[in-house]
Amino acid sequence: MKKFCLFITVFITAAASVCAQNPQTDNVVNALAGDIHRKLVEERATKVVVSNQFTFRGESVPLFVSYWVNQLTGELANIPNKPYILLSGGLADADIGISGEIVETGDIIRVYTRLIRQDNRAIAASFHSDIEMNQGISALFAGGLTYVPPDDYEPDSWENPVAFEIGADENVATEFRTISHNDDEDFFLLQSNRDERVVLETTGGIDTYIEFYDADTKQLLAEDDDSGLNNNAKITYNVETGKRYIVKVRGYSGSATGYYAFRAYFRPPRETDSSWKNPIQYQLGANQNATEVYRILYEDDADFFILVPNNTGRLVMETSGEIDTYMEFYDADTKRLIAENDDGGQGNNAKIIYNFEAGKRYIAKVRGYNSEITGNYAFRAYIIPLREGASSWESPIQYQLGANRNAAAVTVNRVLVEDDEEFFLIVNNRNSSITMETTGDTDTIIEFYDADTKELLAEDDDSGQDNNAELTYIIDARKRYIVKVRSYGGSPGAFGFRAYIRR
């Protein structure tokens, strides 16, 4: 048998010595090459690559890997009259790639070898080979390569990502890659054929970081460091049919290098799952005695509730229970995030209060504070009718700016009931720097918005005297702005408000 024992020059002597001392390895590789050859013939393969992507513990490659790849390549090369050719280039030029993993289990080295169809990344066949540990094999495992080679897909980038098919479940094949140098980044292009939750994760021994983007807008949708096993990254996200996504994988630090594997697969829905497309229909209550819906959050889970009020008022949404929940509140039709909250309720529960419009559709999304949180919680939502004389987004208090602080009118005796808010409309006929402030004994918060887009421009809690809020902002001529005043923690109380032009 022809020996391919030279992979990197520095290991010539050691590799040659080990090759001569391991007849059991020769027999194992010979049998494996025969099995692979028969499958390649069955697959009608024409171009085959034995990739260097045989990983050990997902990271640094010991000399054994170089030895194994060379031995297997040599055995396949020696098979006569084969209908395929062996390539020395990258996987991009092949129709079948050969890669795998090496596992050390006690006195046995097990090598898992896979044949991967390059057109759809499906596993054509999988084999495993066992080798007994001896002095020669131990020597190969003792010597690791400090050099991490670029993988077969380089160079990839935003403009040239590696197409990756989302697997049907967690048994999907992994893509073996390397972070081979400082600031190396790998890019995967995914396109979903269904509305479902997808899991993106790495495995291996290096500390990875995943960033997940909309491929067309380059908007960052999610990112993660250590939600997977050990220092690996993991993201679960609800994807949409036909949309294109980019997954960027890098080392947590710019200097991290090594081997890792990536996979993406659909998490099969449970019977009780909800989603953007299939939210839980929730009937809004008329008061705090609203019906509670009891739910269970699993790892990487989220629940979606559809809320459609039939009259204008104030909407209260809250969770209860022992787990740390996080709530996001959206316009259901545009998917615009309106508000979000972590611990506004009791304990670690979430609570959002919002002045809603009759007939509009809203989505309340509830998840754990982080992806690892699991447990039971309850959700409820109810309407607080607007009190007589109360202001709102649609009917704010018209406020005339003062020429200076002393000339500014103080709107007094505005009374906040529990979880209440007041809205003031400000318009000026020229560009100005204005100051808005509250007075009184109530601990107040000011939020300052573009009245037309409802974009939050600025906010303040305690910059005024005592617990009062104070905010200065440069406004545009004839542009409409809304000042929202609420109390800290939703407590009832009275306050005064004034706003004036600064000189």
Q: State the domain count.
A: 4
Strand order of the largest sheet: 2-1-3-4-5
Silhouette = elongated
Q: What percent of residues adopt helix (DSSP H or I)? A: 10-25%
Q: What fold name stands as the CATH topology of the largest domain?
A: Rossmann fold
| Rg value | 31 Å
What does the largest sheet look like? 5 strands, mixed
CATH architecture of the largest domain: 3-Layer(aba) Sandwich
Overall SS class:
mainly beta
Distance between the termini: 92 Å
Number of strands: 32
Spans of at least 5 consecutive residues whose pLDDT stays below 50 are 1-21
Average per-residue pLDDT, rounded, comes to 84
Q: What's the CATH first level of the largest domain?
A: Alpha Beta
Characterize the structure shown.
The protein is 11% helix and 42% strand. It is mainly beta. Strands 2-1-3-4-5 form a 5-stranded mixed beta sheet, covered by helices on one side. A hairpin with a 5-residue loop joins strand 28 and strand 29 (456-460). 35% of the residues are buried. Residues 1-21 have low confidence and may be disordered.
Topology:
Layout: H1 12-21, H2 23-42, E1 47-56, H3 63-77, E2 85-87, E3 96-105, E4 108-117, E5 123-132, H4 135-142, E6 162-163, E7 175-179, E8 185-191, E9 196-204, E10 208-214, E11 220-224, E12 234-239, E13 244-251, E14 258-266, E15 280-281, E16 293-297, E17 302-307, E18 313-320, E19 325-331, E20 337-341, E21 351-356, E22 362-368, E23 375-384, E24 397-398, E25 411-416, E26 421-426, E27 432-439, E28 444-450, E29 456-460, E30 470-475, E31 481-487, E32 493-501
Helix pairs in contact: 1-4, 2-3, 3-4
